[in-house]
Amino acid sequence: MGSYVPHTAAQRAEMLAAVGVKSLDELYQSVPSEMLLNGKLNIPAGLSELEVREAVTAMAEKNKVYKTVLRGAGSYRHFIPAVVKSVTSREELVTCYTPYQAEISQGVLQGVFEFQTMICELTGMDVSNASHYDGATAAAETIPMCKDRKRTKAYVSATVNPQVIETMQTYCFASNTELVVIPAKDGKTDPEALQAALGADAACFLMQQPNYYGLIEDAEALGAAVHAAGAKFVMSVNPIACALLKTPRACGADIVVADGQPLGLDTAFGGPYLGIMATTSAMTRKLPGRIVGETHDVDGNTGYVLTLSAREQHIRREKASSNICSNQALCAFTAGVYMAAMGENGMKQCARLCLSKAHYFAAELEKIGCKLKYTGEFFHEFVTEVACPNCRARILDALDQAGILGGEAVDGGILWCVTELVSKAQLDRAVAIVKEVL
Amino acid sequence: MKLIFELGAEGRGLSLMPPCDVPEVRLSDERTEALRLPHVSENELTRHYSALCKRIHGVNDGFYPLGSCTMKYNPKIDEDMAALPGFTQLHPLQPEGTVQGALEAYHTLGGALCEIFGMDDVSFQPAAGAHGEFTGVMLIKAYHVDRGDLNRTKIIVPDSAHGTNPATAAMCGFEVVNIPSGADGCVDLDALRAAVGPDTAGLMLTNPNTVGIFDKNILEITKIVHDAGGLCYYDGANLNAIMGVVRPGDMGFDCIHSNLHKTFATPHGGGGPGAGVCGCKAFLRKYMPGPLVVKKDGVYAFDYPEKSIGRVKMFYGNFAVVIRALTYVLSLGKAGIEDAAKCAVLNANYMKARLSDKFDMAYEGICMHEFVMTLVKLHDETGCSALDLAKGMLDFGLHPPTMYFPLIVHEALMVEPCETESKELMDEVCDIYCKLYDMAYENPQALHDAPVSTPVRRLDEVAAARNMVLRYQFS
Predict the structure, then answer these.
(1) Domain A82-337, what architecture?
(2) What is the ipTM of this complex?
(3) pTM confidence score
(4) What residues in B contact A46, CB-CB < 8 Å?
(5) Do residues B152 and B230 lie in contact, with contact meaning Cβ atoms separated by under 8 Å?
(6) In Å, how far is B201's CA from the nearest CA of chain A?
């Protein structure tokens, strides 16, 4: 049995005597005796470290790790520089709690302050929080930032990742908020439908850039329509694409959210990821979650603290802007280290590689008869038309057998993703396999 | 210490990306705004972050008795297992047949947690404790809505609760009814009886509660709520005191969240990622967020509950955190889980007994895994507050206890030593606490001035909130 309790039998006896009880069981005297398990917990006996390693490793080995991944749809396998894991596996950083005691937490606080700065740079916004759970919860929590007594309805584009929409729906069911989905036209948000839908009760509209199908939307025009209706314009972005695309701020965004997973985090079967939330100065106090601010100590030295906590649950309780307490601090720190390692050039190179390789792959697929479902500009994801579900399955199965995770099957097609990790040779091989199936 | 933006030089950087092996593509409308990220060498970068890490106190650096946060030792094997490529390299949308081991991990830990909780099913989707609370209270909401019982608009929360409880109830569209605690820190049964009614949706409760006491009336409490037609939600923040000893399900609770980053030893990473697994009784399963993991004929698969509240986040949860907790539960097993809880309670009672001569305890008698001291008398007599004493501890290399919580205790210090601390260390710490207590009488100014040995001294939080410098300003 594994145990991390350091007490010897003699020490246990000594401590019990100091407390004034005869046994450990006596410590539970306030628990009604009929409820006690009395050693009947029905789980297996503990294991030695060697046995645990074998058991858990055996589970890991039952999973298939693909050499080539051509699937994104909300989770992206990118290159992670060695320094990222080296820095973020430091014990001090891994084992500390939320930095309530600022004097002995400056490392975390400064690291998150630097992260906030980098997110502001990436998005063009004025202020970032210290993280949310993931891109979907960040998207959902923008709605209460925008609602007021008159503006009670939220809007989201049908071209947003369906899991994000579903998460927003759950949060809206919670807060009794109506969430309207604006339909798509040719794979992009239908601007006319948006304009027609927005009324005086519209609180906010959330779009995704690039959208779920990889297409680059006309964010500025959508933003202008939203602002004309007096509502807030929320953009959900891909942080790697931000290095090349016009900033959300330049597109008129009032709030920007993102899943920060592409910034140095493993795909790890879906988590932990990183929710990014940034906004304008005017909306700072509406941001949920921790925010790190700069200040000074009694000697005048610069230091960092958790600030604006009057928004938060531990102070405001039922009047708080959100119930969030723990966030994804280590993931935010990781994203900070990643962006520091990549720098402006690395980020732009990475984005350019994703963009170029995805276009190469799309063109090669077109050459063998795979038609692109949509015509607009795209970043590193695109949909090829494959009408029959059986054909989709045959293509993906053939790739699977070659150790390639093909695209995500979506309605009427396959949603492909190419990142900098996939070489031209790997793309050519994938094309050859698809060609054989067709 | 310099910010990373103040290091390095333009043109400096790491060499990470390969040349482009396909024709380069440009978009019609590309970013023109500057992207001011650091320009540092790898050496500068790693030294910067090493320096930051030296300005952090983690569980590995010393005593960390942060009440209600369960800062127990984080085993190294757990980290090794979470780093296996067979887990880290999985795409969340891989076919089920290619992730059988990952689903087995979820299913195995889920089974053990159901047993520890006394529940019938769990969802690992919630990313943190408050997120698990949200999920649990949404189950309650879905249950009433599904039955057409639409007038149940109120959630009852004791005044000793964590702030997340009322905040969660409000997020779920409920009105919060705060009820006062009794003199013993437990639920006042009369106040509860007066609060329940046909508008009661449910009760949110932590047991042992936030003052470290197991509410002996728990069966009566859950009965009062059930008799009124409400459901009972268990906040698992303090589960470490009772795991393997007594189960929330047997206390009458209908749903629960548990913080894997507290009770199940996963590290907290400076504020996250945690994991807030949500458990429920069978009658609530159909409302759980999907997908859940099931095993049919020896094969693991995803299952989407019929009347699900919907997703609470993308994918399935903080998977890498779940792997750590799984490793921990497999290591400790039946006897180890129970012993860990009992020793957590032993340690708290030992420190409480050792400190009782000097410090006033908010509640007398045997405590669970944590206890609350009240420094009102010390403050009145010396001018030294709980904050001053806490800051004094920093100069001894100790992380202070939780300060000023729960709100119902004045000048509170809440101590949760955890089972992984040795008697020798706790003896040393008790001596230091007593020395600081004496110092309050002998040299109060020294405590007002503390800390003096930390990288920075007391920080001006008011100025931080007023000036709102929330990012680096490039010149």
Answers:
(1) 3-Layer(aba) Sandwich (3.40)
(2) 0.97
(3) 0.98
(4) 330-336
(5) yes
(6) 13
